[in-house]
């Protein structure tokens, strides 16, 4: 009877692995381990697709072992971006925890639905293979089954594609890659936004800009800031003239500009030097300002 059937071993394995991945992600001590990264790969590359294929193809007929595995990997690659697209339109955004919860929920619900579908089928027609037997059948299908040359070639290509995909994602995920060193240098308006810059001055009065610097140089850097109006340096506070930032640190500080001379369409330069080059600016920004006489 259907009510006496055991939970299928393949679905049990998928559910158990999803729960294990969630445990490693949610417990702080475990979340920093290398094992968590390795366990997360199946949740991205295989498990959602396998659960969906199990739901769509609950019987033994229609898909053989290697085809089911290849379709599971390909379907997972399609599912993950779709879930990310849905998350991007919500307040959660595409972040690690919302994506983990969404993929886990999708996989578990698909497994539950696949189980319900299998319960409605005659027991002899249900796709349910013990994991050891399933692994051996995959090996036999790939290497030992008598097939036409075209079928063998297709199966080998599918197997190689799956292995290449898994290897590529594992390499990108596990092997750390350092980005090219660079520095972010920007100026913001007085309200901290990239607009509403003060460009109209009255001589003797001040306007404010926000200086922003973020160090992505993979090392601590000593910066020097120079602000020039018509190639003449303006007075700066010491904390902005000489700036030391560790890697991945950001500085945002307001700076009052008091133009000492009158003129129209004058170039106000913001020059940032690093500790390896004192003569040529490492980064530079410009505003064009007008300064009228005292009212």
* Count of extended strands: 9
Global structural class: alpha+beta
The profile of the biggest β sheet is: 6 strands, mixed
Radius of gyration: 31 Å
Form type: elongated
Low-confidence stretches: 172-176
Oligomer: single chain
Specify the number of helices.
9
Straight-line N-to-C gap: 96 Å
The arrangement of helices and strands along the chain is HHHHHHHHEEEEEHEEEE
How much strand? 15-25%
Mean pLDDT comes to 81
Can you lay out the helices and strands and say which pair or pack?
Blueprint: H1 9-26, H2 28-31, H3 34-45, H4 47-56, H5 65-88, H6 96-119, H7 131-143, H8 149-174, E1 182-188, E2 200-202, E3 207-216, E4 221-229, E5 232-233, H9 238-241, E6 242-245, E7 250-257, E8 263-273, E9 283-292
Parallel strand pairs: 2-9
Antiparallel strand pairs: 1-3, 3-7, 4-5, 4-6, 4-8, 8-9
Helix pairs in contact: 1-3, 1-6, 3-8, 4-5, 4-6, 5-6, 5-8
Write up what this structure looks like.
The protein has 295 residues and is of the alpha+beta class. It has helices at 9-26, 28-31, 34-45, 47-56, 65-88, 96-119, 131-143, 149-174, 238-241; strands spanning 182-188, 200-202, 207-216, 221-229, 232-233, 242-245, 250-257, 263-273, 283-292. The protein folds into 2 domains: 2-174, no CATH class; 182-292, Immunoglobulins (Immunoglobulin-like), CATH 2.60.40. The chain is built from 9 helices and 9 strands. Strands 2, 4, 5, 6, 8 and 9 form a 6-stranded mixed β-sheet that branches. A hairpin with a 2-residue loop joins strand 4 (221-229) and strand 5 (232-233). Helix 3 runs antiparallel to helix 8, helix 5 (65-88) crosses helix 6 and helix 5 (65-88) packs across helix 8 (149-174).
